[in-house]
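Working notes for the structural subgroup meeting. M.R. asked for a predicted model of this chain before we commit to crystallization trials. I am recording the input and output together here so anyone reviewing the notebook later can reproduce the run.

Input as submitted:
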Amino acid sequence: MEKRIRVLVAKPGLDGHDRGAKVVARALRDAGFEVIYTGLRQTPEQIAEAALQEDVNVVALSLLSGAHPHLFPRVVELVKGKGMTDVLFVGGGVIPDADIPALKDAGIAEVFTPGTPTSAIVEFINANVK
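Returned structure, recorded in token form:
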């Protein structure tokens, strides 16, 4: 039996809007991935610990509050600090185009903004999980 891709969908920080994250989580599940959803208002430390405990292949971060320049890189740093160097990081939410290059430099492989078809997220993960 082939091992399914495991995706942690997480909402870091104080952002209380989770509809988009839930839509993405469901689309990923429907595409055959194992999905773990952390719920709202998670610290980077909680997300990193969940990634380790769940032995995930992908950490998908969703944020609408504008704190992505600080929180996304911190999650990457903490997860890699736990020895998980082969994890794919993706981000999504209301993220200005001008912020995307810095997020990619910090280790976020791709950023999906509002209006992105969920099929594009599925395709990206399938193509990039090691």
